[in-house]
C-alpha cells in the first residue's frame, strides 16, 4: 500500500498544498492566491489577513482531497512551510490580534537605524544571533510595535510565524520552530532567546518573552488534525502534522542541498543563494544571513538579493518585442557569451546582498552603435547570473549548484549560470521544492524516510556543465562588473539626493 504526504507552503503570493507519494514525486498541486495589503503608497507597510490565509489553506486541502484520486486514509502526514520573519500574533482565544506584518514590510527601519547609531549594541546582537539586524526581523518589528502599537502587544498571547499559525489551526497545538525562530529570536549557539535583544531596555522587548512558545525541531510530530479540519477538508482524523520549517530551509532540503558546502540558488522574485554548513561562524560580510537548515545540526549561509526575475519582467516589458519564452530562449542562445561586452547590474529597487544600498539602481554598461535589443536582453540574463557569482565570492568555484524557482524553465539561462559561476548547475525534477521539503520532514517524523538515507529521493531533471571558454570570458567581465558597482555607489547616493531635493520619484 502506498503512503502519501502533503507539503503546505504559505507563500507571500500563493498558498499551495502539494501531494507527494512515498518517493516524494508530486502527484497533485492545489493553489490559491495570497493577497498582500499595502497600507501606504510607498508599500513600506505590508500585511496579510491571517484568517484569510487560513481559509485559503483549507480550500487547497479540500480541493486536493477531492481531486487527487488518493484515499484520504492513505495520506499519512502533513508538513508545513512558509514565508519567514514578520509578526503573526494571536490573543488568548487563538484569534489574530491584528493583520500579520510581513517579511517585506520595512516599518522597523527606524529601529534598526537607532541600533546602527549605537555600534556596540549592533555588534552584540550580530555576535549572538549571527545576523545583522534588518527591518524584516521579527524582533525589530516587535520593538516597533512596542513603541507605536503597545496595545497590540498587550492584547497578544502568543507570537507565531506564518507556518506556525497554519499548524496551530490544523492541530490546535501552539508552538514555534527552530528554523523560523533562528532568523532573529535566538542565540544560535544555545538555541535560546537572544539576551542582547530581549534584555535591551531600548528595544523594550523584556515583556515580549511571554509571547514565546516551546521551540520544536522541524521533524517533531506536533499532533493530528482537528475534527473541524477533517470534516471540512475530507482528510482522515488520524492525519499527523509535523513542525515543518521556514520556506528557504525547506527548499534547500527539497532540492537536495543537505551536505556541507552544497550550494543552491532559488531564482524567484528575489535571487537567494545559500551554502550549507555544519559550522557556525560569524561572517565578516554584513549581508550574509545565517539560519538553521531544516535538518538537525546544519545551517545555511544565505545571500538574498532584492531583485531576481523582476529584471526579466522589466526587460520583456520595456526592451523585448516578444513575451514568448520559446522565442526568448532562441534569442539569448544566439547571442554570443558576454553580450558584446555589455554588462547589466540588476538593482531595480536597491540592493541588500552582497552589499546594502537602498539607492542602487540598474544600469547597462558598454552600449555602442552595434548594440541590439538581443544584446541587451542577453546582458540582463547574464547580470542576474553575476549576482549569483557575487554571492559565492570566497567559496570554492568547483562543485554543483542546485537551481530552483521559475528560472529553471530556461535551459539557456541555466547554461549561462553554469558558465558564469563555473559550477555544474543541477535542475531537480520537482518544482514545488519548499512543499517537497516540508513533506520530507513529515516523512522523517513518521519514520517513512530515515534522515540518513535520502539520496534516492532527489531526482534530477537536467545538468548543465560550464563551458571553459565561456567561464574564462565571464571571469574577466565579472571584474568589470564589480568595479563598476563600487564606482557607482556614491553616484547612486548623489542621484537619490538630487531627486529627493526636487521631490521626484526615485
From TrEMBL:
The GO biological-process annotations, alphabetized, read as:
carbohydrate metabolic process
Which keywords, in A-to-Z order, does the entry hold?
Kinase, Transferase
Domain Carbohydrate kinase FGGY N-terminal: start-end pairs: 4-254
User: Which residue ranges does UniProt annotate as crossing the membrane?
Assistant: none
Query: What does UniProt give as the signal peptide span?
Result: none
Which molecular-function annotations from GO does this UniProt entry contain?
kinase activity; phosphotransferase activity, alcohol group as acceptor
One short Pfam family name for this protein? Answer: FGGY_C
Q: Keyword Kinase, does the record have it?
A: yes
PROSITE patterns hit by this protein: FGGY_KINASES_2
Q: What Gene3D superfamilies does the entry give?
A: 3.30.420.40
Domain (Carbohydrate kinase FGGY C-terminal): give its ranges.
265-445
User: Any keyword ATP-binding?
Assistant: no
Its family? Belongs to the FGGY kinase family.
Put simply, this protein is called: Xylulokinase
Amino acid at each position: 500500500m502506498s503512503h502519501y504526504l502533503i507539503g503546505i507552503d504559505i507563500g507571500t503570493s500563493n498558498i499551495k498544498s502539494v501531494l507527494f507519494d512515498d518517493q516524494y514525486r508530486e502527484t497533485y498541486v492545489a493553489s490559491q492566491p495570497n493577497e498582500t495589503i499595502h497600507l501606504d503608497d510607498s508599500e513600506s507597510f505590508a500585511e496579510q489577513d491571517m484568517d484569510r490565509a487560513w481559509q485559503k489553506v483549507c480550500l487547497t486541502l479540500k480541493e486536493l482531497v477531492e481531486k487527487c484520486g488518493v484515499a484520504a486514509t492513505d495520506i499519512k502526514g502533513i508538513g508545513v512551510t512558509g514565508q519567514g520573519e514578520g509578526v503573526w500574533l494571536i490573543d488568548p482565544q487563538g484569534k489574530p490580534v491584528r493583520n500579520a506584518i510581513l517579511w517585506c514590510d520595512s516599518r522597523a527601519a527606524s529601529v534598526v537605524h537607532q541600533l546602527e547609531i549605537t555600534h556596540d549594541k549592533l555588534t552584540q546582537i550580530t555576535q549572538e544571533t549571527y545576523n545583522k539586524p534588518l527591518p524584516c526581523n521579527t524582533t525589530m518589528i516587535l520593538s516597533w510595535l512596542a513603541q507605536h502599537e503597545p496595545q497590540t502587544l498587550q492584547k497578544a498571547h502568543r507570537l507565531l510565524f506564518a507556518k506556525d499559525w497554519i499548524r496551530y489551526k490544523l492541530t490546535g497545538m501552539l508552538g514555534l520552530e527552530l528554523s523560523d525562530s533562528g532568523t532573529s529570536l535566538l542565540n544560535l549557539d544555545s538555541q535560546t532567546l537572544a539576551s542582547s535583544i530581549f534584555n535591551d531596555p531600548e528595544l523594550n522587548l523584556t515583556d515580549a518573552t511571554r509571547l514565546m512558545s516551546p521551540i520544536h525541531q522541524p521533524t517533531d510530530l506536533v499532533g493530528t488534525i482537528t475534527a473541524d479540519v477533517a470534516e471540512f477538508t475530507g482528510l482522515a482524523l488520524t492525519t499527523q502534522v509535523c513542525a515543518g520549517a521556514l520556506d528557504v530551509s525547506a527548499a534547500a532540503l527539497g532540492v537536495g542541498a543537505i551536505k556541507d558546502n552544497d550550494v543552491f540558488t532559488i531564482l524567484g522574485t528575489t535571487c537567494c543563494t545559500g551554502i550549507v554548513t555544519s559550522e557556525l561562524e560569524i561572517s565578516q560580510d554584513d549581508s550574509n544571513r545565517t539560519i538553521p537548515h531544516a535538518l538537525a545540526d546544519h545551517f545555511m549561509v544565505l545571500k538574498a538579493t532584492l531583485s531576481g526575475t523582476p529584471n526579466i519582467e522589466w526587460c520583456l516589458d520595456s526592451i523585448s518585442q516578444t513575451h514568448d519564452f520559446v522565442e526568448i530562449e532562441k534569442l539569448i542562445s544566439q547571442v554570443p557569451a558576454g553580450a558584446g561586452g555589455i554588462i547589466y547590474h540588476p538593482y531595480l529597487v536597491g540592493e541588500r546582498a552582497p552589499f546594502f544600498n537602498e539607492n542602487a539602481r540598474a544600469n547597462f554598461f558598454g552600449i555602442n552603435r552595434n548594440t541590439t535589443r538581443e544584446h541587451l536582453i542577453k546582458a540582463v540574463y547574464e547580470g542576474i547570473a553575476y549576482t549569483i557569482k557575487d554571492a559565492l565570492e570566497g567559496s570554492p568555484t568547483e562543485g554543483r549548484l542546485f537551481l530552483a524557482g521559475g528560472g529553471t524553465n530556461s535551459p539557456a539561462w541555466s547554461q549561462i549560470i553554469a558558465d558564469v559561476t563555473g559550477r555544474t548547475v543541477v535542475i531537480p525534477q520537482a518544482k514545488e521544492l519548499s512543499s517537497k521539503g516540508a513533506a520530507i520532514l513529515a516523512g522523517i517524523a513518521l519514520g517513512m524516510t530515515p534522515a540518513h538515507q535520502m539520496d534516492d529521493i532527489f531526482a534530477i531533471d537536467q545538468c548543465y556543465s560550464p563551458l571553459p571558454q565561456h567561464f574564462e570570458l565571464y571571469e574577466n567581465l565579472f571584474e568589470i562588473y564589480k568595479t563598476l558597482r563600487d564606482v557607482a555607489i556614491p553616484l547612486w547616493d548623489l542621484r537619490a539626493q538630487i531627486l529627493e531635493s526636487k521631490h521626484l520619484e526615485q
